[in-house]
Write a structure and sequence with these properties.
single chain; 319 residues; alpha/beta; Rossmann fold; 7-stranded parallel β-sheet; 3-stranded mixed β-sheet; globular; binds nicotinamide-adenine-dinucleotide
């Protein structure tokens, strides 16, 4: 199987590639992977160092919104998994245009190239943020898309494009919508790496508003296993939520990170809330559970490992 992994130099895409080429992923024993990544500020080739010499690995620097770059890598590809996106909500509030270019136009270019090259399966990695915010209960995949940030709106646009390419052209397009990921190799602008890096250095951390926003946390390796489950057992045109079942307020998460870093609340600075900040995300994962998927990484153990990784890799991502 030849797989094109776009955005594979980022946090989740690189975990997906390291896991695939590290062996032991049922159904992917013969996989060969090409990563296409434009190496934005968020992409880091060091994330792929572990597989750089693997005979089944190739890296191409290129933009998914660039027709020529996409057309050059597509021939012979069986499966596309698209992680490439602008991903930081705060940046989308400052500069939405970059998000539309990569997260919508880029997906259209990838879909067109995949169609021309007769790619068998296209998997779009999406997010639970497309649903908006939910006060109680959890979203099934059939709930309406009510995105609240430019980031989420752009991702929702891509989800709808994927649906249209399935309905119009009969392409095998699948979409996964995952909750918040944590783990190693995540850019230090995101909450867990930012807080851990700052706390370990004795610097303050910014907590938005009153910290009561709720997020569902899933270890990045569990997200990647969910994507493999959808590739192996999912159906064309279907959408699958992926989630962890560990819901925490940002205040609770902050408390856990303070404890893990031997710090206290004196280092927490309450900052003005993010514009349009969603109160709570929660996905109903019964559809992917029916494919035999369950998250495996225990949150307490996974968080402790993650904190240890940032402590042991203090130089990572700072070059
Ligand atoms: P990330 O920001 O760490 O990595 C994104 C990668 O995409 C980087 O390597 C970057 O260089 C690359 N990229 C960006 N624009 C590109 C373009 N136009 N062409 C080629 N490459 C480009 O992001 P991440 O956290 O690994 O997220 C990966 C995907 O998973 C995204 O689509 C995101 O929406 C989705 N997602 C993330 C989370 C999360 O908690 N991080 C949760 C659910 C879904």
């Amino acid at each position: 199987m030849r797989m094109l992994v776009t955005g594979g130099a980022g946090f989740i895409g690189s975990q997906f590639v390291r896991d695939l080429l590290g062996g032991g992923c049922a159904g992917f024993e013969d996989v060969r992977v090409t990563v296409l990544d434009s190496l934005t500020y968020a992409g880091n080739l060091a994330n792929l160092a572990a597989v750089a010499d693997h005979p089944g690995f190739a890296f191409v620097r290129g933009d998914i919104a660039d027709d020529a770059a996409v057309a050059a890598v597509m021939p012979g590809v069986d499966v596309v998994v698209n992680f490439a996106a602008e991903t930081h909500v705060d940046r989308s509030i400052q500069d939405p245009e970059a998000f539309l270019r990569s997260n919508v136009l880029g997906v259209q270019r990838l879909l067109d190239a995949a169609r021309s090259a007769h790619v068998t399966t296209f998997l779009q990695v999406s997010t639970d943020e497309v649903y908006g915010s939910i006060a109680a209960g959890s979203w099934p995949e059939t709930d309406p898309l009510l995105p609240n940030s430019p980031y989420a709106a752009a991702k929702a646009g891509a989800d709808l494009l994927c649906r249209s390419y399935h309905r119009t052209y009969g392409m095998d397009v699948r979409v996964t919508r995952c909750s918040n990921n944590y783990g190693p190799y995540q850019h230090r602008e995101k909450v867990i790496p930012l807080f851990v890096s700052n706390l370990l250095a004795g610097r303050p951390v910014p907590l938005y508003g009153d910290g009561r926003n709720v997020r569902d946390w899933l270890h990045v390796a569990d997200h990647c296993r969910g994507i493999r489950t959808v590739l192996r057992k999912g159906a064309p045109g279907e959408i699958y939520n992926i989630g962890g079942g560990t819901e925490l307020t940002n205040r609770e998460l902050t408390g856990l990170l303070l404890a893990a870093c031997d710090a206290d609340w004196s280092l927490v600075e309450h900052v003005t809330d993010r514009l349009g900040h969603d109160l709570r995300y929660s996905v109903d994962i019964s559809k992917i559970q029916s494919l035999g998927y369950e998250p495996r990484v225990d949150f307490v153990a996974g968080l402790a490992d993650t904190v240890r990784w940032y402590r042991d890799n203090a130089a990572w991502g700072r070059d």
